[in-house]
Amino acid sequence: MNEKYMKLAIKEAQKAYDEEEVPIGAVIVKDDKVIAKAHNRREMKKQSCAHAEILAIEKACKKLEAWRLENCDMYVTLEPCAMCAGAILNAKMRNVYIGAMEPRSGAVGSKINLFSDYRYNHEVNYETGILEEECKNLMRNFFRAKRK
Question: Cβ(96)–Cβ(74) under 8 Å?
Fold first, then answer.
């Protein structure tokens, strides 16, 4: 099941890649149905907060007409940054499934782990390494092409 939804997140990341955005995709699922999909759009929107996770959360909240996403799960191709991890916590998501870790700025275990910080009033379950190589390869190929 996790691979099925991560493949959709990878498709979103590929859209970002094709738009010359950093290739990160996110999918939100509730009751085994996709309720939101998004990919990075920072360059296109000229907004620093237009990360895939934030855009997917906005779409899910609009669809559900609620700010709480308690019974929702997110599939994201790259470990969320502190901003996105905070948004996931604030939305009170149930689970987050991560493709590849981000050693430079990841906030779910790489640099810090906001999801395991007991001081928050909500805990997000998470799993890493889902289709990890596919997710890593998208990032590698993108940055290799940028350097050329």
Answer: yes
Contact 80, 88 (CB under 8 A): yes
- What's the rounded Cα separation, in Å, for the pair 4 and 44? 28
Q: Residue 93 to residues 81, 109, 148: CA-CA distances in angstroms?
A: 16, 17, 39
pTM of the model: 0.96
> Residues with catalytic annotation?
53
Query: In what order do the strands lie in the sheet containing 72-78?
Result: 33-39, 25-30, 72-78, 95-100, 125-127
Residue 97 has pLDDT above 80, yes or no: yes
Query: Token digits for 31?
Result: 């009751």
